Amino acid sequence: MQTTRRDFIKTTSLGAIGLSVFSSFDSFGKTTLSLPRRSPESQGVNSEGIRKFLKATQESGLEWHSFMLIRHGNVVAEGWWKPFEAEYKHTLYSLSKSFTSSAIGFLINEGKISVDDQVIKFFPDETPLSPSENLKAMKIKHLLTMNTGHDTDTMPVLRQFENQSWVKSFLKHPVIHQPSSHFLYNTGATYILGAIVHKMTGQTLEEYLEPRLFKPLDIKGYDWEKSPQGLNTAGFGLRLSTEDIAKFGQFYLQKGKWNGKQLLPESWIKEATDKQTESQSGDNEWSQGYGYQFWRCKPGFYRGDGAFGQFCMVMPEQDAVLVMTCESFDLGKTMDVAYQTILPALSNNPLPENPTQLTSLKKEIANLTLPVLKANKTSKNAVKWNDKWFDVENNAFNVPQIGFSFSKDEGVLSIREGNGFQKIVFGWENWKVNKSSVKNFFPVANRTHIQSKIAATGTWIDDNTLQLNFKFVEAVHGDKLTITFNDNKIEVSFLNSVSENSKNNSDKREKLRGVLKA
How far apart are CA 433 and CA 490, in angstroms? Predict the structure, then answer.
């Protein structure tokens, strides 16, 4: 059985401001900028092409969160769809793999390992007593190139046995094929790369990369999910801001050099991003070949690639980097939008400044936002439930009470927690971002829920039905709550954004039911 890139997206869906264009004299409020800004035309980028990109994103029917375009080392265009903002970190999903690959590059450069090292030699205490010949033949290079010989992605197996170390679960999983003979997208293999870093250094990936990559590139405020054993998940779970993703791409574009210092050897950058293996034959953008945790792209460049549309595209021939973050359910279409609009906008030479196009672009920027459902901002019955609490029947979320407050400008959903309560403020048909980072109060089973600020919007479907839409703006996904009032009773149903957009992933959360508190 062959596990494809799309299969991983299905697995992770269960496991895991407006745009601004800057010239050199623009400022960016409270966000710290470390990459230089220049006008598009000064770097040979046509502003009209960026406008075409924005138009295509709108027409795509897909959800976009941010993008950043770098040309000749300068940011020429960048954007965040409200309620996302520049300072928010964003879940990278499998784009995390490219950072793990970089850690291996540093470790090799320090002479501590080789890509030809046998995997089991690092884990003698967790290797089966009688390892198969295929397991014994598995090398670090096979982990890097997704050629371990497994027939299915090992990550579900790693998660299945909670009381067993992920390394042991990986090494116990049957290696059906001879390593190097069978490409299989295998997130568990990336976890083992991180485990090797830990074995050789005593440090997690975060700790190891901090002085070698994150600090030199001025990447701050990141976090990375961990396994039950306390190791970073490696193949997913890293969160960075859009600009920090762009720095990473620029670092690779500069062949491992940053601020005049060679951090990673140029030879490693080339090896990691060249085609090392055939990939998913006949699968369009996933059939162009694979390097060391980097995908090759049809136009001839390479990318780090994460589920739901987290992209860091590095274009050496164009001397450009394009970052996109999304909640997309058609990754091929997301890439095509960029190929058809951004690539034609790149010229080999500087272009005359085009103030007319730039002005038009900035006008279009002002209204750039994720859409909200619009029905009614008021209900004639809202006064019945204003500032009221409802006692909720026993439920999987252990929520004993919920309450509501409604005003002209906003509403509040209150959720009782122990002796206190949490509030989610929502705008009437506009996004309101809540200040605190919290976990989803109504989590989806078998999905990792991380701390995030919640942006919320609400509308009355009818006088008795309130719909709330949440967006987790420091992650990727969203949630929809439909609250039906019936005199002194209430019912709350749920629909998460993955289920809403996936044919084979229904939302199985049970409804909440409650009665007005006496």
Answer: 26
